[in-house]
Sequence to fold (371 residues):
Amino acid sequence: MIEKNRFNKNIGQIAREISWEEFSAIEEKDKVVFLNNSKTNNPFHVLFSQQFNRKSLDLLCKVADKARLIHKDRDKGRKFLKSLLFGTYALNFFSQPSSRTFLSFETAQEILGMGTKDIRDPSTSSEAKGESMEDTIRTFSSYVDLVVMRHPEGKAVEKGIWVLNNSDRRIPIINGGSGPDQHPTQALLDIYTIYKSFDKKVDNKIIVMVGDLLRGRTVRSLSYFMKNYKGIKLIFVAPSHLRMKKDIKDFLKRHKISYQEESNFKKAIPLADVIYMTRIQDEWDKGKGKQKGHKPVSDKFRFKAEYLNLMKKKSIIMHPLPKRDEIDVELDYCGDPRVIYWRQERNGMWARVALIAAIFQKEKDILKYRI
Ligand code: CP
Fold:
C-alpha cells in the first residue's frame, strides 16, 4: 500500500513508478488523485462514481444544458461545438453488447467534432492473437485521443488507466460500463435527468430502485452519487436473491444516507419522487447453462399501467434501458410526462457531451458561448 505522504509528493511520478498490484490495491477514495485532473478536480479518466463531487456534477449538468441549447442553432452553434475538439479522435471499444451507451458516446464525440472509430467485436482486435490488455490499450493510445471502454472484465478499464498513466501518451479512458460493478456515465445521465425533471434540484428526493439490484451496475453507481446530495432517501425493492449488496449498504451507512428495503412495491410508489426500474439481468446466469429464453418478471417487481394513479403528480419513472416486461408496454407512448425513460436516454448524449468537454477542459468555452 502506498503511504499518504507519497501521494502528496508528485502524483505523476508515482503513477509512473507504481506497480499494477499496488495500484489496484489502493482504496477507491485514495485512487481519485490518479483519475481526476489535479487542477480542476474534474474527472480526467472515468472509472467509478466516487470520483465525482457535487461541484463537478453541478458543472456537468450546466454544461449539458448549455451544449444542447447551443446545438439548436444548426449553423453557428453546431459549428462552434464541432470546433472544440476538431482534429481529435475517439475510439469506442465495446466488447459487450450496447445500444445506448455506444451510440450516445459516438454521437456526443461527433457533436464535439471528434473523429470516431470503434471496435465492437474483440475477435477483430489483436487481443484474439493473445495480445495482453496492457499492449492493446497502449496501442489504442498511439492513434486516438480518448478511449471509451465496455468490457466483461471488471478490472479492464482500471488496468488501461494504470497503463496510460505510466506512458508518454496519457490519454483519458472512460468506463462505459465494464464488469459487474459500475456504470458511472449512466449514473451521470441519471442525475442529469433528475436535475432536469425537478427544476435543477436533486436534493431531498425519495428514490425507489426496483428489480435486479444485485447485478445492476447502474443502481450501484447511482447510489454512490447520493453522497453528493442532501436529504436523499433510497428505497430498495428487489427479489430476495437479487437484493442490493452489502458494500453499497455499508457505503450508505458511512455517508449517513437513509435507505430501507421494502418488499411491497405498491406501498413505496406513492412515496417516490423517482421510481428507477431495472431489468432482471439473467445474462449473468448464462455461464451456468441456465439461460433458455427470458423468464417473465414477477408481478411484484413490475410497473403496471394502473400504478401511474398511485404516483405523485410531480414524480418520474426512470429506467436505464434496455427493458423487457418490467414496465407495462402501455406506458411507452401514453404521453404521461412522468414517463421519462425515452428522454433519459437522450439526456445521456448531452451528459456525455458535457463529460467529454470537461475532460478536455472545454467546459468554460461552452458556458461562455453567447447564444
Ligand atoms: N443503459 C445502457 O447501458 O444501455 P446499453 O447497454 O444499450 O448501452
